[in-house]
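Summary for the steering committee. The consortium agreed at its last meeting that each partner would contribute one worked example illustrating the joint modelling workflow. Our contribution is presented below. We chose a case with several input lines so that the handling of multiple components could be demonstrated. No manual editing was applied between input and output; the record is shown as generated.
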Amino acid sequence: AQSVAQPEDQVNVAEGNPLTVKCTYSVSGNPYLFWYVQYPNRGLQFLLKYITGDNLVKGSYGFEAEFNKSQTSFHLKKPSALVSDSALYFCAVRDIEDSNYQLIWGAGTKLIIKP
Amino acid sequence: DTEVTQTPKHLVMGMTNKKSLKCEQHMGHRAMYWYKQKAKKPPELMFVYSYEKLSINESVPSRFSPECPNSSLLNLHLHALQPEDSALYLCASSQEGQGSYEQYFGPGTRLTVT
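What follows is the complete predicted structure of the assembly.
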């Protein structure tokens, strides 16, 4: 069965420190991987993706993520956290063979950046 | 431009009302989606349209009725809803090609059923 795990319900980081939000996945074929962010009472915003190529991908607002095929992980990272990064983060995966375009979503991780 | 627009932003309706949610994108995306999202939970897929044809209906109750009038527009018709249908309804679209498979979401419609 296809699944995405975000093992931490909440991550607390001091402003200026590096942050990591973890994501591991399970798909039957090769994955497309995505990170989305949701601010309170807002829709979901696309942050970054891994489709193919370089395992380290860079996205919006200084975020990056590394695709690790052997560990089936796609952790989200940022070198220096901002208070404005506080939000709910979702990891999502899609099997590239899925012609129905369905995303499998993680449960979400609440990121809190303290001043 | 990666904008998906949704109207209305907020909707309060009684259980006997009929209302519609609207979604629009002008990015030339071939797929459009309706999701339901409860607070602090991931979105739940309801419907997928590909090239204006319904390709996925995730066992959604018939009181929700999707419509895709053209490649830029997506509607969700609501009738005889239940209080548990109160949620944030999100529309999304994706290009599905040329390396672009990410979904772009609208701001959502906050629906309250009384």
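Chain A touches chain B at residues 32, 34, 36, 41-46, 49, 51-52, 88, 90, 92, 94, 100-103, 105-108, 110 (CB under 8 Å). The longest strand of chain A covers residues 87-95.
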